[in-house]
């Protein structure tokens, strides 16, 4: 269904398939982010749009898979540049303020605006983990690292040893990870109140894509709003940055000077 949407959808105003044009634009700039309008999606398939608003994490994972398929169909060699494509949702009609975020927003798709006050360093985050069994030398894995808990293995499947395992850094797949602070813009803070801020996680190609901007899209899983455990040490690959899926997109507002 999503595939059909990406391949054939065109809004009333033009006969051109807008997603083909977006894919061309993305690929010509060697990009990894495919913008998809929430309004177009809800016009094409209201049910899918509701699911996306209610369970964005699972839906976006599916969308990303479909997007890779569609992109590779059009540009079969694109896997040599990127093996992942991320669908970025734009034009979400409802906007929330940072001050209004409550537990009802947890795990839902939300759009908030704010000023970026701090940008963290870029760290690698483990995505698919391989381990070496230090007893028999077998390479175990890949294990998918989820957002919540660190992958641990109890027993080697080759030699049944419960002994020491080391992360195999050559075969483990990492992705980029960065946090930034998003603060209420001064104009929207009620008089006499302190501006509120949230920590936002940027993954993959969104890292360093947000500069001094006024408007961000944040579709997030809110379970860990607040402080995250920091990845340990920038020099050695960190064991884990356990983070929610969070997607930030700059949209329509001209960037402020840095
Ligand atoms: Zn072993």
What does this entry look like structurally?
There is one protein chain. The chain is an alpha+beta fold and 258 residues long. It has three domains: 2-90, mini-chromosome maintenance (MCM) complex, chain A, domain 1 (2-Layer Sandwich); 98-123 and 174-250, Nucleic acid-binding proteins (OB fold (Dihydrolipoamide Acetyltransferase, E2P)); 126-173, Rubrerythrin, domain 2, CATH 2.20.28. Helix content is 21%, strand content 26%. Helix 1 (2-8) crosses helix 5 (56-74) and helix 3 packs across helix 4. The chain is globular and about 65 Å long. The termini are far apart. Mean pLDDT is 73; it is low at 212-258. Bound molecules: zinc ion. Zinc ion binds at residues 133, 135-136, 138, 156, 158-159, 161.
Lay out the secondary structure:
Elements: H1 2-8, H2 18-28, E1 33-37, H3 38-44, H4 46-54, H5 56-74, E2 86-90, E3 109-110, E4 115-133, E5 139-144, E6 165-167, E7 173-183, E8 197-203, E9 216-220, E10 246-250
Parallel strand pairs: 1-2
Antiparallel strand pairs: 3-9, 4-5, 4-6, 4-7, 7-8, 9-10
Helix pairs in contact: 1-5, 3-4, 4-5
Bound molecules: zinc ion.
**Alpha-beta classification:** alpha+beta
> Which sheet architecture does the biggest sheet show?
5 strands, antiparallel
Ligands in the structure? zinc ion
- Name of the CATH homologous superfamily of the largest domain: Nucleic acid-binding proteins
Question: Number of DSSP strands?
Answer: 10
Task: Give the overall average pLDDT.
Answer: 73
What is this entry, summarized?
The chain is built from five helices and ten strands; from the N terminus they run H-H-E-H-H-H-E-E-E-E-E-E-E-E-E. The protein is of the alpha+beta class and 258 residues long. It has three domains: 2-90, mini-chromosome maintenance (MCM) complex, chain A, domain 1 (2-Layer Sandwich), CATH 3.30.1640.10; 98-123 and 174-250, Nucleic acid-binding proteins (OB fold (Dihydrolipoamide Acetyltransferase, E2P)); 126-173, Rubrerythrin, domain 2.
